[in-house]
Protein backbone atom coordinates (compact mmCIF):
# COMPACT_ATOMS: atom_id res chain seq x y z
CA UNK A 1 0.00 0.00 0.00
CA UNK A 2 1.50 3.33 -1.07
CA UNK A 3 1.00 5.08 2.25
CA UNK A 4 2.91 6.42 5.24
CA UNK A 5 1.97 5.54 8.81
CA UNK A 6 3.37 7.94 11.40
CA UNK A 7 3.23 8.14 15.19
CA UNK A 8 2.93 11.78 16.27
CA UNK A 9 3.41 13.42 19.66
CA UNK A 10 2.40 16.80 21.10
CA UNK A 11 5.56 17.77 22.96
CA UNK A 12 5.36 20.42 25.69
CA UNK A 13 8.75 21.75 24.56
CA UNK A 14 8.79 21.47 20.75
CA UNK A 15 5.09 21.28 19.94
CA UNK A 16 3.43 18.74 17.60
CA UNK A 17 5.75 16.57 15.53
CA UNK A 18 6.11 13.07 14.09
CA UNK A 19 8.47 10.81 16.04
CA UNK A 20 8.18 7.53 14.09
CA UNK A 21 7.39 7.02 10.39
CA UNK A 22 6.94 3.78 8.46
CA UNK A 23 6.62 3.75 4.69
CA UNK A 24 6.81 1.34 1.76
CA UNK A 25 9.67 1.44 -0.74
CA UNK A 26 9.32 -0.45 -4.01
CA UNK A 27 11.47 1.29 -6.60
CA UNK A 28 13.85 3.00 -4.15
CA UNK A 29 16.66 0.90 -2.72
CA UNK A 30 18.03 1.18 0.80
CA UNK A 31 21.52 1.74 -0.58
CA UNK A 32 20.33 4.80 -2.49
CA UNK A 33 18.95 6.37 0.68
CA UNK A 34 22.29 6.15 2.45
CA UNK A 35 23.76 8.72 0.07
CA UNK A 36 20.85 11.15 0.25
CA UNK A 37 21.62 14.30 2.23
CA UNK A 38 18.92 15.42 4.61
CA UNK A 39 17.57 18.94 4.00
CA UNK A 40 18.79 21.65 6.36
CA UNK A 41 15.29 22.08 7.77
CA UNK A 42 15.15 18.42 8.84
CA UNK A 43 18.64 18.62 10.34
CA UNK A 44 17.63 21.64 12.43
CA UNK A 45 14.50 19.80 13.51
CA UNK A 46 16.59 16.90 14.81
CA UNK A 47 19.01 19.24 16.62
CA UNK A 48 16.24 21.15 18.39
CA UNK A 49 14.28 18.08 19.42
CA UNK A 50 14.14 17.30 23.14
CA UNK A 51 14.91 13.90 24.56
CA UNK A 52 11.25 12.83 24.41
CA UNK A 53 10.98 13.60 20.69
CA UNK A 54 14.44 12.31 19.79
CA UNK A 55 14.38 9.17 21.96
CA UNK A 56 13.13 6.84 19.21
CA UNK A 57 15.61 5.61 16.65
CA UNK A 58 17.91 8.59 16.54
CA UNK A 59 18.53 10.66 13.45
CA UNK A 60 20.75 8.15 11.66
CA UNK A 61 19.09 4.86 12.62
CA UNK A 62 16.30 2.92 10.93
CA UNK A 63 14.42 -0.37 11.08
CA UNK A 64 13.52 -2.11 7.86
CA UNK A 65 11.99 -5.39 6.78
CA UNK A 66 11.35 -6.89 3.37
CA UNK A 67 8.50 -8.99 2.04
CA UNK A 68 9.97 -11.69 -0.19
CA UNK A 69 6.71 -12.36 -2.00
CA UNK A 70 5.95 -8.82 -3.18
CA UNK A 71 9.50 -7.43 -3.01
CA UNK A 72 8.35 -4.42 -0.97
CA UNK A 73 10.62 -2.95 1.70
CA UNK A 74 9.18 -1.32 4.82
CA UNK A 75 11.39 1.32 6.44
CA UNK A 76 10.82 2.99 9.80
CA UNK A 77 12.72 6.15 10.73
CA UNK A 78 12.26 9.18 12.93
CA UNK A 79 11.77 11.42 9.90
CA UNK A 80 10.42 10.13 6.58
CA UNK A 81 13.33 9.12 4.34
CA UNK A 82 12.00 10.99 1.31
CA UNK A 83 12.14 14.80 1.77
CA UNK A 84 8.88 15.53 -0.04
CA UNK A 85 7.09 12.95 2.10
CA UNK A 86 8.65 14.34 5.29
CA UNK A 87 7.11 17.77 4.66
CA UNK A 88 3.66 16.26 4.14
CA UNK A 89 3.97 14.19 7.32
CA UNK A 90 5.04 17.26 9.30
CA UNK A 91 1.99 19.24 8.17
CA UNK A 92 -0.33 16.31 8.84
CA UNK A 93 1.12 15.85 12.35
CA UNK A 94 0.36 19.46 13.27
CA UNK A 95 -3.23 19.23 12.05
CA UNK A 96 -3.89 15.84 13.67
CA UNK A 97 -2.78 17.07 17.11
CA UNK A 98 -4.05 20.66 17.04
CA UNK A 99 -7.31 20.99 15.15
CA UNK A 100 -8.45 17.73 13.48
CA UNK A 101 -9.50 15.99 16.72
CA UNK A 102 -12.76 14.18 17.45
CA UNK A 103 -12.73 13.41 21.21
CA UNK A 104 -14.96 10.75 22.71
CA UNK A 105 -16.32 10.69 26.23
CA UNK A 106 -13.38 8.67 27.52
CA UNK A 107 -10.93 11.28 26.27
CA UNK A 108 -9.67 9.29 23.32
CA UNK A 109 -10.19 10.66 19.86
CA UNK A 110 -12.01 8.79 17.16
CA UNK A 111 -10.96 8.77 13.53
CA UNK A 112 -10.89 11.94 11.45
CA UNK A 113 -10.41 12.18 7.69
CA UNK A 114 -8.94 15.37 6.21
CA UNK A 115 -6.58 16.57 3.50
CA UNK A 116 -6.57 17.49 -0.17
CA UNK A 117 -4.94 16.43 -3.43
CA UNK A 118 -1.84 18.60 -2.95
CA UNK A 119 -1.02 17.80 0.68
CA UNK A 120 -2.32 14.25 0.67
CA UNK A 121 -5.31 12.63 2.34
CA UNK A 122 -4.97 11.67 5.99
CA UNK A 123 -6.79 9.36 8.37
CA UNK A 124 -5.97 10.48 11.91
CA UNK A 125 -6.48 8.67 15.21
CA UNK A 126 -5.76 10.74 18.34
CA UNK A 127 -5.41 9.18 21.79
CA UNK A 128 -4.07 9.93 25.28
CA UNK A 129 -1.25 8.16 27.12
CA UNK A 130 -1.05 8.40 30.91
CA UNK A 131 1.89 10.34 32.37
CA UNK A 132 1.93 11.48 36.00
CA UNK A 133 4.68 14.01 35.26
CA UNK A 134 2.86 15.82 32.44
CA UNK A 135 0.38 18.65 32.55
CA UNK A 136 -3.05 17.09 32.99
CA UNK A 137 -1.40 13.73 33.78
CA UNK A 138 -1.41 12.61 30.15
CA UNK A 139 0.40 13.13 26.86
CA UNK A 140 -1.34 13.49 23.52
CA UNK A 141 -0.39 11.15 20.66
CA UNK A 142 -1.83 10.39 17.25
CA UNK A 143 -1.36 7.80 14.52
CA UNK A 144 -1.85 9.11 11.00
CA UNK A 145 -2.12 7.32 7.66
CA UNK A 146 -1.06 9.55 4.77
CA UNK A 147 -2.05 8.55 1.25
CA UNK A 148 -2.50 10.17 -2.16
CA UNK A 149 -5.41 7.92 -3.19
CA UNK A 150 -8.48 9.42 -1.53
CA UNK A 151 -10.97 6.68 -2.39
CA UNK A 152 -8.64 3.83 -1.46
CA UNK A 153 -8.09 5.41 1.94
CA UNK A 154 -11.85 5.78 2.49
CA UNK A 155 -12.50 2.21 1.37
CA UNK A 156 -9.86 0.79 3.70
CA UNK A 157 -10.91 2.96 6.64
CA UNK A 158 -12.72 0.11 8.51
CA UNK A 159 -9.65 -2.10 8.21
CA UNK A 160 -7.25 0.66 9.26
CA UNK A 161 -9.45 1.84 12.13
CA UNK A 162 -9.69 -1.63 13.61
CA UNK A 163 -5.95 -2.26 13.71
CA UNK A 164 -4.82 1.26 14.60
CA UNK A 165 -7.21 1.15 17.55
CA UNK A 166 -5.51 -2.06 18.70
CA UNK A 167 -2.10 -0.36 18.56
CA UNK A 168 -3.26 2.63 20.60
CA UNK A 169 -4.97 0.36 23.12
CA UNK A 170 -1.72 -1.57 23.65
CA UNK A 171 0.19 1.67 24.25
CA UNK A 172 -2.41 2.94 26.69
CA UNK A 173 -2.47 -0.34 28.61
CA UNK A 174 1.33 -0.35 28.98
CA UNK A 175 1.34 3.28 30.12
CA UNK A 176 -1.41 2.54 32.61
CA UNK A 177 0.73 -0.18 34.19
CA UNK A 178 3.63 2.27 34.49
CA UNK A 179 1.31 4.84 36.05
CA UNK A 180 0.05 2.31 38.60
CA UNK A 181 3.63 1.45 39.60
CA UNK A 182 4.52 5.14 39.99
CA UNK A 183 1.46 5.80 42.14
CA UNK A 184 2.66 3.15 44.56
CA UNK A 185 6.03 4.89 44.80
CA UNK A 186 4.79 8.51 44.94
CA UNK A 187 1.58 9.17 46.80
CA UNK A 188 -0.75 11.98 45.74
CA UNK A 189 0.26 14.05 48.78
CA UNK A 190 3.95 13.74 47.87
CA UNK A 191 3.21 14.90 44.32
CA UNK A 192 1.35 17.97 45.61
CA UNK A 193 4.13 18.87 48.06
CA UNK A 194 6.85 18.42 45.46
CA UNK A 195 4.91 20.79 43.19
CA UNK A 196 7.04 22.28 40.43
CA UNK A 197 9.87 19.82 40.97
CA UNK A 198 7.56 16.93 40.07
CA UNK A 199 5.60 18.59 37.29
CA UNK A 200 8.45 20.32 35.44
CA UNK A 201 11.01 17.61 34.64
CA UNK A 202 12.38 16.81 31.20
CA UNK A 203 9.56 15.38 29.04
CA UNK A 204 9.60 11.60 29.03
CA UNK A 205 9.69 9.47 25.91
CA UNK A 206 7.13 6.85 24.97
CA UNK A 207 9.57 4.09 25.95
CA UNK A 208 9.74 5.50 29.47
CA UNK A 209 5.97 5.88 29.66
CA UNK A 210 5.25 2.30 28.62
CA UNK A 211 8.29 0.56 30.08
CA UNK A 212 8.78 -1.34 26.80
CA UNK A 213 12.45 -1.37 25.80
CA UNK A 214 11.78 -2.61 22.26
CA UNK A 215 8.64 -0.55 21.74
CA UNK A 216 9.58 0.94 18.37
CA UNK A 217 10.56 -2.44 16.96
CA UNK A 218 7.07 -3.62 17.88
CA UNK A 219 5.53 -0.55 16.28
CA UNK A 220 7.52 -1.22 13.12
CA UNK A 221 6.14 -4.75 12.92
CA UNK A 222 2.58 -3.46 13.46
CA UNK A 223 2.83 -0.66 10.89
CA UNK A 224 4.63 -2.82 8.31
CA UNK A 225 1.95 -5.50 8.58
CA UNK A 226 -0.82 -2.91 8.16
CA UNK A 227 0.86 -1.56 5.01
CA UNK A 228 1.32 -5.07 3.63
CA UNK A 229 -2.21 -6.22 4.44
CA UNK A 230 -3.69 -2.96 3.17
CA UNK A 231 -2.12 -3.51 -0.25
CA UNK A 232 -4.08 -6.75 -0.50
CA UNK A 233 -7.34 -5.23 0.65
CA UNK A 234 -8.78 -5.01 -2.89
CA UNK A 235 -8.39 -8.47 -4.35
CA UNK A 236 -10.35 -10.69 -6.72
CA UNK A 237 -11.33 -14.05 -5.29
CA UNK A 238 -11.55 -17.09 -7.56
CA UNK A 239 -14.30 -19.48 -6.53
CA UNK A 240 -13.76 -23.16 -7.19
CA UNK A 241 -16.68 -25.45 -7.83
CA UNK A 242 -20.07 -23.92 -8.56
CA UNK A 243 -19.89 -20.18 -9.17
CA UNK A 244 -21.85 -17.99 -6.71
CA UNK A 245 -24.14 -16.66 -9.43
CA UNK A 246 -25.29 -20.19 -10.37
CA UNK A 247 -28.03 -22.14 -8.55
CA UNK A 248 -26.65 -24.32 -5.71
CA UNK A 249 -26.40 -28.04 -6.29
CA UNK A 250 -27.01 -30.70 -3.68
CA UNK A 251 -24.53 -33.47 -2.99
CA UNK A 252 -27.08 -36.15 -3.90
CA UNK A 253 -28.87 -36.89 -7.15
CA UNK A 254 -30.23 -33.68 -8.70
CA UNK A 255 -33.96 -33.35 -9.36
CA UNK A 256 -35.24 -34.49 -12.72
CA UNK A 257 -36.14 -30.97 -13.84
CA UNK A 258 -32.48 -29.95 -13.48
CA UNK A 259 -30.89 -32.79 -15.41
CA UNK A 260 -30.83 -30.72 -18.60
CA UNK A 261 -29.20 -27.86 -16.75
CA UNK A 262 -26.48 -30.07 -15.28
CA UNK A 263 -25.64 -31.96 -18.44
CA UNK A 264 -25.48 -28.93 -20.70
CA UNK A 265 -23.87 -26.34 -18.46
CA UNK A 266 -21.45 -28.02 -16.07
CA UNK A 267 -18.87 -28.92 -18.77
CA UNK A 268 -18.76 -25.26 -19.82
CA UNK A 269 -18.34 -24.18 -16.19
CA UNK A 270 -15.36 -26.49 -15.83
CA UNK A 271 -13.82 -25.11 -19.02
CA UNK A 272 -14.36 -21.57 -17.75
CA UNK A 273 -12.66 -22.30 -14.41
CA UNK A 274 -9.71 -23.93 -16.17
CA UNK A 275 -9.20 -20.93 -18.48
CA UNK A 276 -9.91 -18.15 -15.97
CA UNK A 277 -6.17 -17.50 -15.48
CA UNK A 278 -5.19 -18.12 -19.10
CA UNK A 279 -4.26 -14.80 -20.80
CA UNK A 280 -5.13 -16.27 -24.19
CA UNK A 281 -8.77 -16.62 -23.10
CA UNK A 282 -9.17 -13.08 -21.77
CA UNK A 283 -10.83 -11.79 -24.93
CA UNK A 284 -13.68 -14.28 -24.53
CA UNK A 285 -14.47 -13.17 -20.97
CA UNK A 286 -14.22 -9.37 -21.17
CA UNK A 287 -16.69 -6.60 -21.95
CA UNK A 288 -15.26 -6.39 -25.45
CA UNK A 289 -16.86 -9.77 -26.19
CA UNK A 290 -20.29 -8.26 -25.45
CA UNK A 291 -19.62 -5.46 -27.92
CA UNK A 292 -18.49 -7.93 -30.57
CA UNK A 293 -21.70 -9.95 -30.18
CA UNK A 294 -24.36 -7.20 -30.00
CA UNK A 295 -22.59 -4.57 -32.09
CA UNK A 296 -21.41 -1.02 -31.51
CA UNK A 297 -24.88 0.58 -31.47
CA UNK A 298 -26.51 -1.84 -29.02
CA UNK A 299 -23.52 -2.19 -26.68
CA UNK A 300 -24.40 0.94 -24.59
CA UNK A 301 -27.98 -0.34 -24.26
CA UNK A 302 -26.84 -3.68 -22.85
CA UNK A 303 -24.45 -1.99 -20.41
CA UNK A 304 -27.05 0.50 -19.22
CA UNK A 305 -29.72 -2.16 -18.64
CA UNK A 306 -27.30 -4.42 -16.76
CA UNK A 307 -26.06 -1.58 -14.54
CA UNK A 308 -29.49 -0.10 -13.73
CA UNK A 309 -31.53 -3.27 -13.13
CA UNK A 310 -33.55 -3.60 -16.34
CA UNK A 311 -34.33 -7.32 -16.72
CA UNK A 312 -32.19 -8.90 -19.44
CA UNK A 313 -33.35 -12.15 -21.08
CA UNK A 314 -30.75 -13.89 -23.23
CA UNK A 315 -32.37 -16.56 -25.41
CA UNK A 316 -30.44 -19.20 -27.29
CA UNK A 317 -28.57 -22.47 -27.05
CA UNK A 318 -26.52 -22.77 -23.82
CA UNK A 319 -23.26 -23.35 -25.69
CA UNK A 320 -23.75 -20.01 -27.46
CA UNK A 321 -25.02 -17.91 -24.55
CA UNK A 322 -22.69 -19.10 -21.77
CA UNK A 323 -19.71 -16.87 -22.65
CA UNK A 324 -22.05 -13.92 -23.08
CA UNK A 325 -23.49 -14.46 -19.60
CA UNK A 326 -20.02 -14.72 -18.08
CA UNK A 327 -19.18 -11.32 -19.55
CA UNK A 328 -22.43 -9.76 -18.28
CA UNK A 329 -21.48 -10.96 -14.80
CA UNK A 330 -18.56 -8.51 -14.80
CA UNK A 331 -20.99 -5.58 -14.84
CA UNK A 332 -22.25 -6.35 -11.33
CA UNK A 333 -20.55 -6.54 -7.92
CA UNK A 334 -19.92 -10.00 -6.53
CA UNK A 335 -22.70 -9.64 -3.95
CA UNK A 336 -25.22 -9.18 -6.77
CA UNK A 337 -24.19 -12.21 -8.80
CA UNK A 338 -27.09 -14.15 -7.26
CA UNK A 339 -29.40 -11.97 -9.40
CA UNK A 340 -28.20 -13.91 -12.45
CA UNK A 341 -29.57 -17.26 -13.58
CA UNK A 342 -27.87 -19.18 -16.35
CA UNK A 343 -29.73 -21.74 -18.46
CA UNK A 344 -33.06 -21.44 -16.64
CA UNK A 345 -35.23 -24.50 -17.21
CA UNK A 346 -38.62 -23.10 -16.19
CA UNK A 347 -40.68 -20.12 -17.19
CA UNK A 348 -41.30 -19.14 -13.56
CA UNK A 349 -37.60 -18.19 -13.29
CA UNK A 350 -38.27 -15.33 -15.71
CA UNK A 351 -40.89 -13.76 -13.44
CA UNK A 352 -38.77 -14.19 -10.30
CA UNK A 353 -36.20 -11.83 -8.78
CA UNK A 354 -33.51 -12.72 -11.31
CA UNK A 355 -32.38 -9.70 -13.34
CA UNK A 356 -30.17 -11.39 -15.97
CA UNK A 357 -31.42 -14.74 -17.26
CA UNK A 358 -30.42 -17.04 -20.09
CA UNK A 359 -32.94 -19.54 -21.44
CA UNK A 360 -33.10 -22.00 -24.29
CA UNK A 361 -35.15 -21.48 -27.43
CA UNK A 362 -37.91 -23.84 -26.24
CA UNK A 363 -38.97 -21.60 -23.35
CA UNK A 364 -41.50 -18.85 -23.94
CA UNK A 365 -40.33 -15.40 -22.89
CA UNK A 366 -42.14 -12.04 -22.61
CA UNK A 367 -41.92 -9.47 -25.36
CA UNK A 368 -39.49 -6.59 -25.07
CA UNK A 369 -40.64 -3.60 -23.03
CA UNK A 370 -39.14 -0.71 -21.10
CA UNK A 371 -38.60 -3.16 -18.22
CA UNK A 372 -37.35 -6.10 -20.32
CA UNK A 373 -34.40 -6.24 -22.71
CA UNK A 374 -34.43 -9.24 -25.03
CA UNK A 375 -31.29 -10.60 -26.66
CA UNK A 376 -32.05 -13.48 -29.05
CA UNK A 377 -29.24 -15.58 -30.49
CA UNK A 378 -30.42 -16.45 -34.00
CA UNK A 379 -29.55 -19.64 -35.80
CA UNK A 380 -27.73 -17.88 -38.61
CA UNK A 381 -23.97 -17.44 -38.63
CA UNK A 382 -21.70 -15.25 -40.74
CA UNK A 383 -18.04 -16.26 -40.77
CA UNK A 384 -18.62 -18.17 -37.55
CA UNK A 385 -19.91 -15.11 -35.65
CA UNK A 386 -23.22 -15.08 -33.81
CA UNK A 387 -26.10 -13.01 -35.13
CA UNK A 388 -28.24 -11.60 -32.34
CA UNK A 389 -31.38 -9.54 -32.15
CA UNK A 390 -31.45 -6.85 -29.45
CA UNK A 391 -34.89 -5.45 -28.64
CA UNK A 392 -35.60 -2.73 -26.07
CA UNK A 393 -38.17 0.03 -26.68
CA UNK A 394 -36.71 2.17 -23.91
CA UNK A 395 -34.44 5.18 -24.45
CA UNK A 396 -30.98 5.84 -23.13
CA UNK A 397 -30.51 9.02 -21.06
CA UNK A 398 -28.75 12.00 -22.61
CA UNK A 399 -26.02 11.74 -20.00
CA UNK A 400 -24.66 8.30 -19.25
CA UNK A 401 -23.76 7.35 -15.66
CA UNK A 402 -20.12 7.96 -14.81
CA UNK A 403 -19.43 4.25 -14.33
CA UNK A 404 -20.87 3.46 -17.75
CA UNK A 405 -18.81 6.20 -19.42
CA UNK A 406 -15.59 4.84 -17.96
CA UNK A 407 -16.46 1.28 -19.00
CA UNK A 408 -17.19 2.37 -22.57
CA UNK A 409 -13.89 4.26 -22.72
CA UNK A 410 -12.02 1.23 -21.41
CA UNK A 411 -13.48 -1.04 -24.10
CA UNK A 412 -12.67 1.57 -26.75
CA UNK A 413 -9.09 1.74 -25.47
CA UNK A 414 -8.70 -1.99 -26.10
CA UNK A 415 -9.92 -1.55 -29.66
CA UNK A 416 -7.38 1.23 -30.12
CA UNK A 417 -4.65 -1.11 -28.79
CA UNK A 418 -4.03 1.23 -25.85
CA UNK A 419 -4.04 -1.70 -23.45
CA UNK A 420 -4.82 -5.41 -23.48
CA UNK A 421 -7.81 -7.55 -22.57
CA UNK A 422 -6.15 -8.44 -19.28
CA UNK A 423 -5.93 -4.75 -18.34
CA UNK A 424 -9.57 -4.30 -19.38
CA UNK A 425 -10.65 -7.04 -16.97
CA UNK A 426 -8.65 -5.47 -14.14
CA UNK A 427 -10.03 -2.00 -14.94
CA UNK A 428 -13.58 -3.32 -14.98
CA UNK A 429 -13.08 -4.98 -11.60
CA UNK A 430 -11.67 -1.80 -10.06
CA UNK A 431 -14.48 0.42 -11.41
CA UNK A 432 -17.20 -1.94 -10.18
CA UNK A 433 -15.57 -2.17 -6.74
CA UNK A 434 -15.24 1.62 -6.57
CA UNK A 435 -18.93 2.21 -7.21
CA UNK A 436 -19.93 -0.66 -4.94
CA UNK A 437 -18.12 1.08 -2.08
CA UNK A 438 -19.74 4.40 -2.97
CA UNK A 439 -23.20 2.84 -2.75
CA UNK A 440 -22.36 1.20 0.59
CA UNK A 441 -21.18 4.56 1.96
CA UNK A 442 -24.40 6.23 0.83
CA UNK A 443 -26.46 3.48 2.45
CA UNK A 444 -24.86 4.31 5.79
CA UNK A 445 -25.98 7.94 5.56
CA UNK A 446 -29.07 8.25 7.74
CA UNK A 447 -30.45 11.64 6.69
CA UNK A 448 -30.95 13.20 3.30
CA UNK A 449 -28.71 16.17 4.08
CA UNK A 450 -25.83 13.91 5.08
CA UNK A 451 -26.34 11.85 1.94
CA UNK A 452 -26.31 14.97 -0.24
CA UNK A 453 -23.00 16.11 1.27
CA UNK A 454 -21.58 12.62 0.87
CA UNK A 455 -22.56 12.58 -2.80
CA UNK A 456 -20.52 15.74 -3.35
CA UNK A 457 -17.51 14.17 -1.68
CA UNK A 458 -17.85 10.96 -3.71
CA UNK A 459 -18.49 12.81 -6.97
CA UNK A 460 -21.97 11.33 -7.55
CA UNK A 461 -23.98 13.16 -10.22
CA UNK A 462 -27.74 13.05 -10.96
CA UNK A 463 -27.17 10.73 -13.93
CA UNK A 464 -25.67 8.17 -11.53
CA UNK A 465 -28.88 7.86 -9.49
CA UNK A 466 -30.37 4.87 -11.44
CA UNK A 467 -27.31 2.77 -10.57
CA UNK A 468 -27.46 3.85 -6.92
CA UNK A 469 -31.19 3.06 -6.67
CA UNK A 470 -30.65 -0.44 -8.06
CA UNK A 471 -27.46 -1.37 -6.23
CA UNK A 472 -28.48 0.09 -2.85
CA UNK A 473 -31.28 -2.47 -2.47
CA UNK A 474 -28.79 -5.35 -2.70
CA UNK A 475 -25.64 -3.90 -1.08
CA UNK A 476 -25.63 -3.40 2.68
TrEMBL record:
Q: Its family?
A: Belongs to the folliculin family.
Taxonomically, the superkingdom here is: Eukaryota
Molecular functions per Gene Ontology: GTPase activator activity
Note the Gene3D superfamilies from the entry: 3.40.50.12430
Q: What is this protein called?
A: Folliculin
| Taxonomic source organism | Drosophila navojoa
Which Gene Ontology CC terms are recorded? centrosome; cilium; cytosol; lysosomal membrane; nucleus; spindle
The cellular location(s) given in this protein's UniProt record come to:
Cell projection, Cilium; Cytoplasm, Cytoskeleton, Microtubule organizing center, Centrosome; Cytoplasm, Cytoskeleton, Spindle; Cytoplasm, Cytosol
Keywords noted in UniProt: Cell projection, Cytoplasm, Cytoskeleton, GTPase activation, Lysosome, Membrane, Nucleus
One GO BP on record is: negative regulation of transcription by RNA polymerase II
Locate the UDENN FLCN/SMCR8-type domain: which residues? 59-476
Keyword ATP-binding on entry: no
Q: What is its main location?
A: other
Pfam families documented for this protein: Folliculin (PF11704), Folliculin_C (PF16692)
Amino acid sequence: MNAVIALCHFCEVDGPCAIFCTQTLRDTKIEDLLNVEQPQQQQQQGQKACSACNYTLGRNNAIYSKDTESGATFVSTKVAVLPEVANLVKQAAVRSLCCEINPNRDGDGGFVFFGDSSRGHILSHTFRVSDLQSRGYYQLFSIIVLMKDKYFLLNTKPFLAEHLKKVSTELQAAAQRTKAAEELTYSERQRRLSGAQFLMPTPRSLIELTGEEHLFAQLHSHFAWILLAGSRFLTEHVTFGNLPWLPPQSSGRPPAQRLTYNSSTLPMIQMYEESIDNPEQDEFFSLRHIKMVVGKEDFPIVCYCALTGVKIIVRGAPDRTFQFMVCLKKLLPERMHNLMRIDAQHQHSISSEYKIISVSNEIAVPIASTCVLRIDFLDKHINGNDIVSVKWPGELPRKYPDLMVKLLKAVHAVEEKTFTELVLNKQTKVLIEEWKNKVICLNHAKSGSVQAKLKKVLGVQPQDQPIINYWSTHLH
